[in-house]
Every structure is written in C-alpha cells, then in structure tokens.
Amino acid sequence: PSWDKYQQGGPKNTLPASSGTNTRDFVSFFLFWVCSLPALWFPVHKIRHLFAVKSIVAPAAGIAFFIWAIVRAHGLGPIVHQPAKLEGGELGWAIVKGIMSSIANFAALIMNNPDFSRFAKRPESAMLPQLITIPVGFAITSFIGIIVSSSSAVIYGSPVWSPLTLLENFLNDAHVTGATRFGVFVIAAAFSLAQLGTNIAANSVSAGTDMTALFPRFLSIRRGSYICAIVGLCMCPWNLMSSSNNFTTYLSAYSVFLSSIAGVMVCDYYLVRKGYLQVRNLYSADKT
C-alpha cells in the first residue's frame, strides 16, 4: 500500500527512528487531534449525545472484532489451554501488577468523577450506573482484548497486543477482500469515535475543570480543554504506545500518582468532614 512508503524505513518517511514514530502515524495522529478540537468547544451538557452514540457504537464494534478474530483463528487461541508459566512469589506479584494496571486504566475516571456526577439530580443517579458499568465494562473489554490477542497468535504466529496493529495486519493479508477492507474501516471508525469520547471525558473536560478551579479569573473549562489538547500533543504520547510493556508501566506509575490524590479526597470527605460539605465554602477563596 502507498502508506507503507511513509513508515519507518520507507522512502518518504521524514522522521528519524529516535522520534518514536513515523510520518504515516504522526500525520494520522495529528489529523485526529485537529478533528477533536471542535468537540472541545461545546459545554459538557451539550455533548452528552456523543456519549450516547459512543455507548452503542463502540461495544458493537468491539464485539464484532471479537467474533471476527475468533472466526479467523477457528477458536479462542492457545491462551485457554496454556498452563501458567509463573509460580509462587512471581505469580503473586504478577497478579498484583495486573490488578494495579487494571485499576490505573480507570484511575482517571475515579478522580474525574465529580466533573460529571455533579450534573446528577440524585446521588444514586451517579452511583448505581458507575457501580455496575465500570467493573463490568472494563472486565468485558479486558476479556475481549485477551482473547483477540490470543486468536492473533494462531492467525499470524505471534500475539498482537494492539488492536490497531491487528486491523492493519488484516489489510496486509495476501488475499484481502473488499469486505475485509470495509469491516476494518467500520471498526476503526468506531474505535476513533470511542477514543474521541474518552479524550473528552477523561482528559479535556477534567483538565479544564481543574484549571478553572485554580485560575477562575483567567480560565474556563473550554480554555482549559484546549490547553490540555496542546499539552497532549507536546508530550509525544506515541512513545507510550511503542510497546505493551511501556503502556502498562505508564499506567502503573500513573495509578501511584493518582492514588495519593484519591486517598486525600476520600479521607477528607469521610473522616474529616463526615460527609458534610457547605456548598458556599466550595466556591469561596476565604481561609476558614
């Protein structure tokens, strides 16, 4: 394909290997970044329809991808029958690391929960949906990722941990068909929509809310969201996705940082203030 010329080592690639990316991937990332900027303009309550669409499209695409990989591999892959390779303390620490990585995956949602739960009319309106959807949703997503990666080991000889790389492999098959191209396009488009919603909910709005609380005279949620978008581009996030090990290591370190903040918030609310807050004081800079 013509895009291969812009990969690392291709004749039209203009980025060095030390950059952690290539021209093709960087242009794709930059286009997605630019297309996501208009969504940051709207207030939180006006983009709820985007999340409603995402809640339908993204799970459907994930399940379709799951079934597609199983059908191509004629089964769930070797992970179902593969015995454990770790024992004793190594197995225990691997389990702890896996738990920490899973918690870190939605640690940002735990911290940013008040940014959205404040729109709820009743406490149970915010608590019950999250109590059900967060553990169930993340468990199903993790299960789909594990099985799809296991199926890819049968299809290509080695497991492919990134769904985007696996979709790319589908396109690079020797006998790729038009139906395969269309399926990859639909799933990739659904993943892009899901990523857009995640960026808004877990990153942009939350960063904008925090910045507004720090500098209410100069910043609004909208301005803070755009500052977050600029920082997200400058931090070269593609380096985090260079390997599965880098990604999980980053998540583990991220959870350590956020857990200290969450601990202070929980202790302050339940132990110090006994669950009682004066709303007026939340919007006052006076020392009490």
UniProtKB/TrEMBL annotation:
Principal localisation: membrane
Domain of life from the UniProt record: Eukaryota
Gene3D superfamilies in alphabetical order: Hydantoin permease
Family assignment from sequence similarity: Belongs to the purine-cytosine permease (2.A.39) family.
UniProt organism field: Aureobasidium melanogenum
UniProt keyword Lipid biosynthesis present: no
GO MF terms held by the record: nucleobase transmembrane transporter activity
InterPro entries: Pur-cyt_permease, Uracil/uridine/allantoin_perm
Location of the protein in the cell: Membrane
Protein name according to UniProt: Uracil permease
Keywords from the named record: Membrane, Transmembrane, Transmembrane helix
Topological type in the membrane: Multi-pass membrane protein
Transmembrane segments: 26-44, 51-71, 91-110, 131-158, 178-202, 223-241, 253-272
GO cellular component: plasma membrane
The keyword Repeat belongs to this UniProt entry's keyword annotation: no
